[in-house]
Amino acid sequence: xxxxxxxxxxxxxxxxxxxxxxxxxxxxxxxxxxxxxxxxxxxxxxxxxxxxxxxxxxxxxxxxxxxxxxxxxxxxxxxxxxxxxxxxxxxxxxxxxxxxxxxxxxxxxxxxxxxxxxxxxxxxxxxxxxxxxxxxxxxxxxxxxxxxxxxxxxxxxxxxxxxxxxxxxxxxxxxxxxxxxxxxxxxxxxxxxxxxxxxxxxxxxxxxxxxxxxxxxxxxxxxxxxxxxxxxxxxxxxxxxxxxxxxxxxxxxxxxxxxxxxxxxxxxxxxxxxxxxxxxxxxxxxxxxxxxxxxxxxxxxxxxxxxxxxxxxxxxxxxxxxxxxxxxxxxxxxxxx
Length: 337
Ligand code: GLV
Prior knowledge:
The chain has 337 residues and is α/β, with parallel strands linked by helices. It folds into 2 domains: 6-101 and 293-332, NAD(P)-binding Rossmann-like Domain (Rossmann fold, 3-Layer(aba) Sandwich), CATH 3.40.50.720; 103-284, Rossmann fold, CATH 3.40.50. Helix content is 36%, strand content 14%. The chain has helices at residues 17-22, 38-45, 61-65, 85-90, 103-118, 121-129, 158-169, 183-189, 196-202, 222-227, 245-254, 293-311, 325-333; strands at 6-9, 26-29, 50-53, 72-75, 94-96, 150-154, 173-177, 191-193, 205-208, 233-236, 259-262, 282-284. The protein has a 7-stranded parallel β-sheet, with helices on both faces. A 5-stranded parallel β-sheet has the order 2-1-3-4-5. Helix 4 (85-90) links the parallel strand 4 (72-75) and strand 5. The longest helix is centred in the C-terminal third of the chain and has 19 residues, at 293-311. It is elongated. 43% of the residues are buried. Bound molecules: glyoxylic acid. Glyoxylic acid binds at residues 55, 77-79, 102, 290.
């Protein structure tokens, strides 16, 4: 059994997360600004007991097969669609994530994007910089009001609920759709449950906060976009693949909906020749919902703590596959190899 577990971290991290890991582990950190390639990741993971990964790292069957010593993966994200969880579980690799710490920061950006798209903030900035601002005009850069409008929230988890609290401050009517009804949230947030089609048809703004799974991939496609009001705006800060991007482009181009604001795209980064970039009625940011100084440090710290907990044999609340705990403990009971 090695004295100190070997850990590979796939990018430099803010805050004190790396120092925390170094107290008890041998830590290697990928030095690049860009993620390791699948080959690099496989090579680095080959001798690792633990990985601290980002949503840009694919932890798939090939990677897991090449990492025989691996017992824990700690993903510095609340989402974990970059990980083949079934295969990790089959190989008795514990997976953890960082929910909770990014809730308010992510909701801030979602609401910021909503405002930016409605009130044409990014477009207005481009207009000024392009030298087009010649006068104040009664009909220049008009957009819909946010206050008093109806907000449809798809996925009323932590972040969806935090967006609802912000919307309440704007006097918005709130509809939500999710896997289950949430009577307490309905009371606390004044949110009304609606089936997805009703939510899409009645909302002025639709914001997506669902997890990406095989069930939710392409959740918003051509049929769903056609149900939305021509004046409606779609906000996606969850995962790009929840929306059929070709259908979204067509809806934005044809005026089937009025606008969109996307912090996530499919793929990421969005290729420079994406037709979306030619549209003025879409605001796009580079997957930065959790990108505040404090929150990224907190996420890194929590990811490090999760990894240390796993390497110490602890299955904490942030573990995604706790159902393997029994077999996993047997696997590591003889010590790390
Ligand atoms: C970001 O997208 C996350 O899942 O934390």
